[in-house]
Amino acid sequence: MKKSLDFLASLLKNSGSVNLPPEIYPDSPHRLPGAIVAAAKTADSHVVLVVAESSASLPDGFEGDRVELDGGAVGLICPKNAVNAAALRKHFPWCAPRSLRKERTTIGCGDRLGLATFGQLRAAKKYALSPVLAQQSMRELSMTGRTFRGVVDDAVFQVFAADFQSGYGADGDHLKKISDIDVALDAGMPMITLDLSEVMNAAAGDWPDSEINCAFAALPEADQTRTAQMYFDKTFDLGSGVQVKLDAATARRCAVMYNRALDFAEEVYRHLQERRGDEFDLEISIDETTSPTLPSHHLYIVSELKRRGVVVSSLAPRFIGEFQKAVDYIGDLSEFDRQFKVHARIAKAFGGYKISVHSGSDKFAVYPTVGRETEGYLHLKTAGTSWLVAVLVIAQNDPALYREMHRFAEAHFEEMLKLYHITADLTRIPNLDSLSDADLPGLVESHPDARQLMHITYGPILTGPLRARFFAAMHRFEEEYAQALEKHFNKHFSLLNIPRKG
Known about the structure:
It is a single chain. This protein is of the alpha/beta class. Among the domains are: 2-91, no CATH class; 394-481, no CATH class. 45% of the residues lie in helices and 16% in strands. The protein contains 19 helices and 15 strands. The chain has helices spanning 2-11, 82-91, 117-124, 138-144, 148-162, 178-186, 209-217, 221-231, 248-276, 295-307, 333-349, 367-374, 384-397, 399-416, 440-446, 448-456, 458-463, 467-476, 478-495; strands at 30-32, 35-41, 46-52, 65-68, 74-79, 105-109, 130-137, 169-175, 191-195, 234-239, 242-246, 281-285, 314-316, 354-357, 378-382. The protein has an 8-stranded parallel beta barrel with strand order 6-7-8-9-12-13-14-15, surrounded by 8 helices. It has a 5-stranded antiparallel β-sheet with strand order 1-2-3-5-4. Strands 10-11 form a two-stranded antiparallel ribbon. Strand 14 (354-357), helix 12 and strand 15 (378-382) form a beta-alpha-beta unit. Helix 9 (248-276) crosses helix 10 (295-307) and helix 13 packs antiparallel against helix 15 (440-446). The longest helix is centred in the middle third of the chain and has 29 residues, at 248-276.
């Protein structure tokens, strides 16, 4: 490390091209008045290096071990922590997440490990898209023992190390309460995904008309009158020969199902305006239901949001078919194509917000339709796919550890089924003892049941007795992980037909 600090000190006097020592991330050195700041990797951790011409030139805000250098120069070896992440944001504002509401294509690159941003950015840099690099839900935080602030700080370090100055987002995902939203906002997350599942009356989707009529009659009279005037037996022309019709029965059902939730969405929107002005992205999620979102319901929801003055950056319907974790789309592709086209036309007709596809990673079969019909006005959420790539890297490079992780996952599978809807059958997974080490990567890459097993058990693995060995291995295999992520996300982006830069 002393050699690295001496080398950085020499950069103060060298304006030409130099070869950096391998422990310093080559794109990370940045100049401040009288100082250089860089990111580096040690044998067991990540650090920020600060080298200044003198004590007076040390940029404020950084904390770490002080090293006296030749000629009066001073260095700091700063651990990767909240204080130093704040200093990076202060001196290099592009390290902080920002609103992406004006960006056409955004990709949620969830990172449950705080290690995936390096590889995700290698792919994202090549395409006309804006990444949302710090994306976590309350469930993921509880499963991994992380905090919103820690998730953002991990992204800050990697964004700085990669010199990614194009702007990125941070998403408090699937939040349901204003108190949780405030925690995400306080951590610097400008995107909020509002999950309306607990405030909308999803059960009313299956009620008979007689029960719907009674519930509708109990709504305020003004709501009943407005609903009748705006929606009863109305046909909405969305262009390109696409129409959506709402009969009176459907309109009444929508009012009963969604009005309370839409009132809450307006309350959250006003709260976000008070906290951040216009610098936020609000996504509305109605995908956490058992039934697909009918186009007529989608249209009612966005029409009512517009009437309330709520501007959404993206909206996530529940699409037809199965969007299960870790595997490709399950369902009738032709029917998906037909319905998705209508959803995309609704979004275009009502302000051009982005259609959001949740559990969107690895849904390769529907990507061509999604990219084509949205014309790139799209938000794709991924999270578990980056975790599974990490599992793949372990299987490729430390098969003994993978075998322990796999068996630990099997032991905790039933408890995790309470949190995730998947159809994995563990009896279809080959016995590990029958597989050679060379067979293990294929198990992770292409066996649906094994992928789903490993996908939903990340919490016990990351917080249990294997945690230290897992993270030590991922530190050793950091470059392999980045390369694998780059390849994996390249496949996502190309199938979505996202244009390449340049």
